[in-house]
Task: structure prediction
Amino acid sequence: MAQSKSLPAHAVRVVTYAELQRYVRAFADGHLNLLMIFGNPGVGKSRAVREALKGPVCWIGGHATAFGIFIEAFQHRNRPMVLDDVDGLYGDRNGVRLLKALCQTETTKTLSWWTKTSLQCHGVPQAFTTKSRLVLIGNEWKTLNADVAALEDRGHMLIFEPTALEVHSQAAEWFWDQQIFDLVADNLHLFAQPSLRTYVHAWELKCAGLDWRQTVLSRCLSGAALEVMKLKTNPAFACEAERVRAFIQSGAGCRATYFHHAKKLKPPKDRPKLLLLHKSPPPDPDSTYLERLRKRFGELGKRWTNKSRVKLVKNLSKKPAFVMCTYV
Result:
């Protein structure tokens, strides 16, 4: 995330996942009333929050209006709330006013909506109290006016800016394809804006039999430099002379251009070498949970006894509840 003069002076710049996790755990433990996390896309901001919040949570992702947030705040009052991908929310006056009330420093807050709306259709009163705490997650934030500044003053703002090596080390904890991982490592010094999604996108293309190397390299290179690196990483070429001929035939440049970029793209000697512990993608958590239910209670849809139903309800109550909402 590029530095911006519009960010508040008290914003804390965080560069490691360990430090980010300390803030997120502090919120999960009830110490923080409002936590705002902003940074480049694909660095795991939402994942860090999701892994820390273990109990029932109201998670609103994507576009949400102030009216929709008000309804969810009532239906999930006293629970932690997460507004994910809130870019542009700072430009919505109604949204900022509502969040100012929701993020008051008092433990119990009063929210109200006095304009004529369809609140009664949703079973929502025009005013109610709640003890909900809030996390805001986004890629960009601007202090446009005094109302936005007042909202910022109510909480803790983090600007998450991990280095490419930090993102790469984080990916090593869960990624599974060593070939993709090593290609990223060899070109890590070229990544200006690293993303954890690079690894997953490359894996998807590799499984489909498509050119996954180009996806990785195009994240950090372009033009003649990209063409040189594509040839360098292509196992079909046996020697440098073949690569040079292919480079010239492609129209990307001459022999001198090839070696000019090849010299600049040479990886550093101290590039990271990490051995991945995982050999396959992690199982889908929801499908794994359903499979455990089938093993314990039989095929879903069959006739159950009352005793089985009681066991299932108790089992479901132990699973963390994330409520995903999108309001227009």
Observations:
- The longest helix spans residues 285-297.
- The chain has two domains: 12-162, 174-264.
